């Protein structure tokens, strides 16, 4: 069964702690993305990666970090520098093509709550 | 700039009613357009898409037509069911460069028996 998995589903963190959210895909997609969703709002792009060992900041990268050591994996670290980390985090992937509609496929999400 | 505007929710309907959720966009170039659906506590699922003007995307009874002249991509369904209750997101994908999806704020749909 091909798809995107995110773990854990729920995550609680104390203020001042770093925490890492997992994202794995077995779709053989080149590109992967991290989004943040806040209540009543659309998704905002945190980081994206078009290829292994390369990633770029999105619109709201401050306080977050990522790595892309393997094609299948794109973990997101929420650092203590992120002022308001409580949110729903969604990982996505897509085939990286130079033309055509590169629709993104989403994982089930991780809900992070800072206590 | 590039943006997507959706009608504000919540939209509340009775089962078997007709659904329209409006979506308009502003974009440079020729974007692809998408509707995603999010059920409570879950990630987003692609509902339908259209890649060029006058294309109609359809899936599970939902339809949307890419209207370049009105920069719109309204979502419609002839007869909604309780199971359609979810949040619906309109999004555009800019052509060229990396695959940046720009989302609307989402519209919550509640269908009552």
Over the alpha carbons, how many angstroms does the gyration radius of chain B reach?
14 Å
The secondary-structure element order of chain A is: EEEEEEEEEEE
Strands of chain A, total number: 11
Mean pLDDT of chain B: 93
User: Radius of gyration of chain A, Cα only, in angstroms?
Assistant: 14 Å
Biggest β-sheet strands, sense, barrel of chain A = 7 strands, mixed
Percentage beta strand of chain B: over 45%
Strand percentage of chain A lies at over 45%
Structural class of chain A: mainly beta
Shape assignment of chain A = globular
Question: Distance between the terminal alpha carbons of chain B, to the nearest Å?
Answer: 41 Å
User: How many helices of chain B?
Assistant: 0
> Element order, helices and strands of chain B?
EEEEEEEEEEEE
> Based on the structure, what is the oligomeric state of the protein chains?
heterodimer
Number of helices of chain A: 0
Helix content of chain B: under 10%
Report the sheet with the most strands of chain B, covering strand number, pairing sense and barrel closure.
Answer: 6 strands, mixed
